[in-house]
Amino acid sequence: MTLQGSLQIVLVVAILLLLAIPLGNYLYRVFTGKTVWFEGGFAAVERGLYRLVGVNPSVEMDWKAYLKALLMVNFVMALFAYLIFRTMGRLPLNPDHIPSMSWPLAFNTAASFVSNTDWQNYAGESQMTILGQMVAITFLQFTSVVTGLVAAVAFLRGMTNRKSPNIGNFWVDFIRSITRLFLPLSFLLAIVFVGLGLPQTLDGAVTVHALGGGAQTISRGPVASLEAIKQLGTNGGGYFNANSAHPYEDPSALTTVLEIIAMGLIPTALVATFGKFIGNRRQAVVLYVFLAAMLLGGAFFVYGAEVAGNPLLHHLLGIGGPNMEGKEVRFGLPLTGLFTAATTAFTTGAVNAMHDSLTPLGGMLPLVFMLLNMVFGGVGVGLLNILMFLLITVFIAGLMVGRTPEIFGKKIEVREVKLATISMLVHPFLILGATAVAVAVPAGLAALGNPGLHGFTEVLYAYSSAAANNGSAFAGLAGNTLFYNLTIGMVILLGRYVSIIAMFAIAGSLAIKPVTPAGLGTLRTDTFTFGGVFVAVVLVVSALTFFPVLAIGPVAEHLQMVAGKLLP
Amino acid sequence: MTKSAVKTVSKGIILGAVADSFRKLDPRVMVRNPVMFVVEVGVVVTLILSVSPDLFGGHYGPTQALFNFVVCVILFVTVLFANFAEAIAESRGRAQAESLRRAKTDLLAKRRTKDGSYESVPATALRQGDEVLITAGEMIPADGDVVRGLGSVDESAVTGESAPVIRGAGGDFSSVTGGTKLLSDELVVRVSVNPGDSFLDKMIALVEGASRQKTPNELALSVLLAGLTLIFLIVVVTLEPMVGYVHGSIGVATLIALLVCLIPTTIGALLSAIGIAGMDRVIRFNIVAKSGKAVEAAGDVNTLILDKTGTITIGNRLATEFNPVGGHDEGQLTQVAVLSSLFDETPEGRSIIDLAKQKGVEMAREQFADAKVIEFSADTRMSGTNLPDGTVVRKGAVDAIKKYLAEKGGTVPSGLDEKTERIAKEGGTPLAVVRGDEVYGVIYLKDIVKPGMRARFEELRRMGIKTVMSTGDNRLTAATIAREAGVDDFIAEAKPEDKMRLIRAEQAEGKLVAMSGDGTNDAPALAQADVGLAMNSGTAAAKEAANMVDLDSDPTKLIEVVGIGKQLLITRGAITTFSIANDIAKYFAIIPAMFSGILPQLAALNVMHLTSPQSAILSALIFNAVVIPLLIPLAMRGVKFRPMGATELLVRNLLIYGVGGVIAPFIGIKLIDLVLTGLGVANI
Amino acid sequence: MTNLLRSLRLTLVLVVILGLVYPLVVTGFGRLLFPSQANGSLVRFGGRIVGSRLIAQAVNVPGLFHPRPSAVKYAGNGSGGSNLGPTNPALFREVGSNLAAADLPPGTKLSAVPPDMVESSASGLDPDITPANARLQIPRIARSTGLSRRWLWRLVLREETGPFLGLWGQPMVNVWRLNLALLRKSGG
Question: Residue B338 and residue B352: Cα distance in Å, rounded?
Fold first, then answer.
């Protein structure tokens, strides 16, 4: 690790924070109906869209109505994508003659993309048509992130309501998120991406006469437009199999910096939006400090682990130096480390290196970030997870100051604790349950790409990625089997919607509570002390839950590796 | 119940609690505490496994059976410890209930019949609305209001206070409690409750914990603990197939041991004991809380409304200055003032004599044996003395004295108005003194703030609680006292509706309000307040409306109630934190032990260097069990609450129970391991 | 029911806007502003398209610079890494055979071999190598082409690109640029 390497990491995070805070304020204006720049234009387009969809923008919804609309929209869109995947072989814009998907793969892909997970059991260049990349993949990459965003906004409204059950209009929030945020931003970023080398064409693969003789077929397509929303929407589902490690998706160190910033932008901005909603800047500052520290710590951890390299290679073959297996030269290790930490912190799931080939500790970090699922987190749902853990922390810490706990002036009672507990339970249940089944049945074991402890981590990583709606993979696992398509698809859906439903119910219950003004005796959540307690509670609860599996997987593999042994 | 009823835990109580601990093993009872129920299931499973260790497959020898049995025993002891904690908390209450019940022996009552005569019936036959006659020396058969008569009542059976109190018809001192004893005179009481609903019945039920319901916060915490238990259950259940992946297997007893170590048994075992002990602390403080919810709410109070008289001030004004007017000097004024108050038995009168004594003026009553004492009357608003020589001395409100002067033809001396005004402005009460038709001066009567109140209010402010003083005085007087006492706000010329309005206004802002009161006209406000503390000396209506009754009738106790409420919550939070923090060390003990034969490299995690896998598991389990009885005293006593800001309090408690909770088991487990090794049973 | 209808309408409207209009407009702008990049940064040599500047190609002749090992045999339509874990015996077989294939000059110290030379890239298409990797290939190229080592050394130095803004990334050389320069020098 070098000073220059460290600077690379720190500066990207600094730029990210600098951009995110004003964007967070902008989002606050968007979702509180205040006028923004270019208001007239936005409003005119939105009026047209409201008419097309048939909604009355002035209607307010309570949490149940909002949630029903959200679930219905997600269901219809997933169904639409499923049908596209099943029929795209016969639809237009298929110059490379790619066949339609099998039903398990189509189910897995539809569930994965509608939920912002973007786990891919298919290879983009050989199993997805250009039409599929556009109307199913790119489309869902917009709508899935918007779903997460509006869920968080609705929660914030409920949390700050003063005895009113209304948490906004789902349709209005959904459409505004697209017109005022994702569409303009993605468009700008996509154009920049084309300039920096990402292809954007409707022509399919090109076959060239290679220099050294023979031919090379190079897949192309509308990559830049997908890449922009893939990163901005913390989706992560790449155009190509190698994702952001592919030179067409991420051709230079500059583009990888842009991609890191793009994926962090909105999750990070939402912390500022949250601060504006509760009218407490300090709260946002405290969260920024601790979450950014975790992100940086994670990036340095991977960076350090990969620089240290693989002692077995030295031991057995005499090759020293950093671990370059599954990495690209143009990014360098610092940006690879940061990308790896960021993609799991922001639950994007894009990768610019193959996580399966990271050192055991380097690969443990992204796993840990997915298990925590709250280092900023994905758009919207990350904030929801943060708030869920805040609620649990306030509940325990609040008792210790001698008051029945309250979060932002609202009393936390049995109902809220019950729902937060359900939301907290989903994650370990899905990950541990599914992993245990998969490593015990032949159908699960058959797909492993690596033997031994690393194979165990592959499975654990897959279900953690699915439950956290991340989408990155220890890609040695051959996931396109009936078993994995179905189990991963189910874990994705449960991981996404159970906790969203629970959090909506909390929002509904908080919405109608009165706000108690803070006094000296109230536990302040906007202090660094509390921030520390918050992080400690999250780490301890997660560590207690996942310590055994981490011990079996990466920890044992690391100890085995440093002991110089190939097999456990 | 006397104040010293059950302060210490006697041998009898412990024996009773031990017996109860076994009785509580009934699974139908245990299931109400999901955390401990899981442990009890573990006991059963490990017991079966110690008889037939191969039940779930595998081939284990007798060593394994012995190990399983040891685990079973430790788990059993863990459950017993938990039951014991609850039982001992309950038994203290039960002992108190016993002493209460003694007051409620079979009584006979003289019930008034339709024709006006009295018939003798058992007390249990009395119904609401019946009228009973009680004569001196008899026990009052039921709760009720005095409708006729006046008498002194010994209420020590209920309040522990031995000084008798006066009860009479009408006014705020008309309520009597069943089980107390009339010492003098005769009373006719209208019974206000049906049998079983009496104050004494409620108190007995309350202290016995019979009607104990989990409070909202306790319920919420139970839910969280059940959630954590579920998480750890899934952790342990999924472990076996995962270990199967690396071609290993972990014995069921070891898995159960891990589960029990991880689930929050410490807080699970002590949670109900903390709640019972919290209520118990309130009761021992001679306050009856009608529900645990009220005690919890007390911890949350934002605003405290306190009556000035009796709560903030000592209740009487005292003379502090003699201000002569019209050419008289202080000495002359003092002489006249003493004359006017010589036979005045009111506290104000006595304070004048005392102040004069300090100034060197003393007179013996015997000298004026023939003097005629003129008592204070609401009509004249003056009192004084007519001396045998015809001298007339009076003291009274300034305007009353002026009127008196006008009648007598005297003149108002210069300076009187000026001095009167100054005293009023400073919040005092001016008392003019006149001899004949000549005004000598003005006595400065002052409200005296109880010693220590200022500091108390300062503490409350640091806890974030706003204090509001309520008084019938005018604004000027009220403001002065408020400033002197250091309260945050006051309501002057307060009528009961004003209190009500204040409570509603504070509640509309989302604040919780506590108040105390005793009169019937306080009842609506007591009911409206989140915490209403009624004085036992108050009316039945007030006691009915409030959610707490102070048996000592000391309104200042409202402040202590707030502290007890906070302490209850802090204790819960602290032990929860401690319980969860403990798990870290237990993992470091058990994980390397569990994997010793499967993934030997994980021995690197054995940071405590425990002797053997068996000893590691047993040490963690023993620590887990032993920590429960060690924390029983803390659960019963409560974590010490110091008034300070929330963040300071958080840091302090976190350092002790959070960081301490991480470190303590590392030390404890290592020590137990050393002992096991020393005993030569580490490789069992 | 209203929700279902609205959901269908919303899906339809957004599929058109986000799935069709948005990528097509970007395509239009891309073609207008950056035609070469939009088409995939294709490289022409001798009048034919020979590949993409961004995509590594298999080089089997000793007289050209070799890109990093590819687990997918430089398949431009099938990117991917080896996904071999750090304790997988297959990793050591793979690195061992890459080491053998590198055709290092005799006497090269193993500890001096840059890992990017023997470890497979993430995409299998990594077009860049580290300068150390390029320099280690100079003796082989010199031997087979007859070009002077000095010239080759200077070529590597000339084509070496530093980190972006001197900060992000690491020093590296694009194999395409080296090889095209070599081919031009030798006249194709």
Answer: 7
What is the bridge-based pairing of β-strands B372-374 and B313-324? unpaired
AA letter at A408: F
Residues of A with Cβ-Cβ distance to C127 under 8 angstroms: 247
Total domains in chain C come to 2
C51 and C33 share one domain: no
Distance from CA of A450 to the nearest CA of B (A): 13
Residues C76 and C142 in one domain: yes
The predicted model scores a pTM of: 0.88
Which secondary-structure segment (H or E) carries B289?
A: strand B287-289
Which A positions 35-64 lie with beta carbon below 8 A of chain C?
Answer: 49, 52-55
Determine the 3-state secondary structure of B393 from DSSP: strand
User: Within this chain, do residues C81 and C125 fall inside the same structural domain, yes or no?
Assistant: yes
Residues in C touching A313 (Cβ below 8 Å): 91-92, 95, 115
Which pairs count as long-range contacts for B160-164, CB under 8 Å and 24+ apart, including other chains?
A: B160/B1, B160/B2, B160/B3, B160/B5, B160/B286, B160/B551, B160/B552, B161/B551, B161/B552
Which residues make beta-bridge pairs with A62?
A166
Instruction: Give the residue numbers of B annotated as catalytic, written as ranges.
Output: 307
Cβ atoms of residues A142 and A178 within 8 Å:
yes
Which chain A residues have a beta carbon less than 8 Å from that of C31? 200-201
E strand spans, C81-164: 128-129
Report the distance separating Cα B224 and Cα B236, nearest Å.
18
Count other Cβ atoms within 10 Å, centred on residue C1: 5
Show Cβ contacts of residue B196 under 8 Å, excluding neighbours closer than 6 positions.
none
Query: Does C140 share its domain with C74?
Result: yes
B315-448 CATH: 3.40.1110.10
Cβ pair A428, A528 in contact under 8 A? no
Are residues C2 and C51 both part of a single domain? no
Domain that holds residue C92: 42-185
Q: Is the dihedral of CA A490, A491, A496, A497 positive or negative?
A: positive
Interface A–C counts its CB contacts (< 8 A) at: 387
Tell me the sheet residues that pair with B324. Answer: B441
A192–C contact, CB cutoff 8 A: no
Distance CA A432, CA C68 (A): 38
For residues C151 and C76, state if they share a domain.
Answer: yes
The topology under which CATH files domain B127-194 is 2.70.150
Top-confidence range, A167-181, B238-252, B492-506: A167-181
- For A443-461, b/e burial (b = at least 16 CB within 10 A) is ebeebbbbbbbbbbbbbbb
CATH code linked to domain B297-312+450-551: 3.40.50.1000
Does C52 lie in the same domain as C19?
no
Structure tokens at C53: 């500047």
Block residue for tokens 């030390």: B667
Give pLDDT tens digits along chain C (188 positions). Answer: 788 999 999 999 999 999 999 999 999 999 999 999 999 999 999 889 999 999 999 998 899 999 999 999 999 999 999 999 999 999 999 999 999 998 888 888 898 899 999 999 999 999 999 999 999 999 999 999 999 999 999 999 999 999 999 999 999 999 999 999 999 988 75
Find the CB nearest A517 among B242, B510, B587: B510
Q: Looking at the partner chain, which of A8, A219, A319 has a beta carbon nearest the beta carbon of C76?
A: A219
Q: Do B464 and A521 touch (CB under 8 A)?
A: yes
Query: Domain-by-domain residue ranges, chain B?
Result: 11-96+207-284+563-660, 127-194, 297-312+450-551, 315-448
A170 near A61, Cβ under 8 Å?
yes
B18, two tokens:
């031990």
Best mutation site among B231, B254, B270, B642 for testing chain A: the one with the most A CBs within 10 Å? B231
- Asked whether residue C11 falls in the same domain as residue C60, the answer is no
